[in-house]
Amino acid sequence: MYGFILASALVLTACKTAGSAIPPKADIKEIVNSSDVTLVDVRIPEQYEAGTAKGAVNIPLAEIQNNIGSLKGKKVVVFCNKGIQADQAMEILKKNGVDAYDGTSWKNVKAIQDEKQSVK
Questions:
Q1: Residue 83, by phi and psi: left (phi above 0), alpha (psi -120 to 50) or beta?
Q2: How far is 93 from 80, CA to CA, in rounded Å?
Q3: How far from chain centre, in Å, is Cα 94?
Q4: Is residue 40 within 8 Å of residue 76, measured between CB atoms?
Q5: What residue stretch is flagged as signal peptide (predicted)?
């Protein structure tokens, strides 16, 4: 009986570890500060003009699908005001094979940039 319990435990444990192989999460700070990243602000132009992260381009969420071609092959960080539109943009980009990362909000991405500047 003890052997059966031990064997069952080993089988269950083996299945659990094999099924939960989660790839490591990318470090968003490293990605935002990499030289080959494209920062995409998915808010409307008026919000973008009021303030955004350094070097960001404005592609509103409503236009993201039409810009897939220009983003393919690039490392893209998307962001908005609070992360809701960025999440939607991420879903669209990932479905279309774009290497996309969630920067959440423009203030978050700007803070990451500012942090790097103050370290220099």
A1: left
A2: 15
A3: 10
A4: yes
A5: none
Full DSSP string of 18-76: HHT-PPPPP-HHHHHTSTTEEEEE-S-HHHHHH---TT-EE--GGGTGGGHHHHTTSEE
Q: Which residues pair with 105 in a beta bridge?
A: 80
Of the candidates 60, 52, 46, which has an alpha carbon nearest to the alpha carbon of residue 92? 60
Does pLDDT of 119 surpass 80? no
3-state DSSP assignment of residue 15: helix
Average pLDDT over residues 45-61: 97
The set of residues, in sequence order, having a beta carbon less than 8 Å from that of 2 and lying 6+ positions away, is: none
Residue 104's SS3 state is strand
Tell me yes or no: is domain 27-119 CATH 3.40.250.10. yes
Would you call 84 helix, strand, or coil by DSSP? Answer: helix
Rounded Cα–Cα distance for residues 3 and 71 (Å)? 56
Indicate the domain borders of the chain: 27-119
The C-alpha atoms of residue 25 and residue 95 are separated, in whole angstroms, by 18
| pLDDT given for residue 1 in this prediction | 59
